[in-house]
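User:
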Amino acid sequence: MTATGQDHDHERLEAQIDQWRSYVQRHRAISPADVDEMTDHLRDRVADLGATGLDDDEAFLVAVRRMGSLDAVSREFAREHSERLWKQLVLVPDEPARGSSPAWRELAVVLALAVGAGVAMKVALSVFDTDALLMRNAPLMTAPFLAAYFAWKRRVSWRVVAALLVPYALLAVVLNVYPYVDTGSTVVLAALHAPVVLWALVGVVYMGGRWRDQDPRMDFARFTGELVVYVTLLAIGGGVLLGLTIATLTLVGVDVEPAMEDWVFPFAVPGAVVVGAWLVEAKQDVVENIAPVLTRVFTPLTTVMLLVTLVVLLGAGGLADVERQLLILMDAILVLVLCLLLYSVSARDSLARPGWFDGLQLVLVAAALAVDAVALTAMLTRIAEFGLSPNKVAALGLNLLLLVHLARSGLLLLGFLRERRPFGALVRWQTRFLPVYAVWAAFVVVAFGPIFGFV
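Assistant: Predicted structure:
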């Protein structure tokens, strides 16, 4: 075998080991030190098997099989990747993972935290007597309970928890001490951007404090998409159930509206977020099978929607006359494109060769960039004609971030399709840029009020 061929085989082996390591890291009961030890053990097994005459692929498969007989996580990894013969090599029966909490105990913790989040929301409804105050503080009531679940689940150190309490407290102080005008733009912007900051703090807990690492960041991005799926399903199912209950009780003359407003909704909304997070954790393998299906369904639909939006914008006449509501909707569409891209990247096999769906994603990104360029032009035109405002600056900043993020993603995706760049480069770009959105959201919350006079 030539030196070039040996280098290629070695790179492929390293990619397979990295994929296995990434899978093991997602098993929350295993510490980073244990993952390092298991990876070293796997490398040693591959080297020993290679010395007997097996090539790298054969040695890796056999080594994973033997690791599977020793560790439930490696066995699960082998079962999941059946298209690569993992399933044929792993024949040991299922066993509960050592060190994991019994299912009933975790369910009890989740239910207690869900009820706690509901109680906190109920208290917020009674304490904050204006819609503006409630809008600012409602996310502050829910986030600690979701973070508490992950802190318990990941066995996060008290040092990490204490470090996160500082930005949480600062955020709470800013939202409640700043002299906002209740009907002003800056208070609305603060209320809209504060959940992004809180979600970043929850993400640090989800990652067990390892926020600098690439794989935990991508895991959190994947978790976010899966949580949206589950919460949506819970909302639909709960809505149907409540609708039937209300209809039945109304027929017998019972007025349930006060009970719904005072008790059901305050407990159901934050509770659904906590329960949804538990469902994602408990049924992760099921959702990962759903993720590729969702991306393949919504990617072409979103591409068509973007192209229609682009035509509408170009035919709208003077860009300064474009309605502000339409620009806001475009921002929402672009965020949806970014979420689809992240979701598909997180669900894709990084070792697979470029395919038609990767080309479709490039078309999606190109359409999003075109829409973003038109939106930016419209915003700059409106600013030049009508001047600056908090809403315009916030929308402009978000569009600039989306432009940079999507443009670089498009270039990396094009390089991957031309087989000049590995898929891992695209993954690394997503995980490195995501914290920028949290920084921008924090800037909006902290700085926009003083800059624009809290109006």
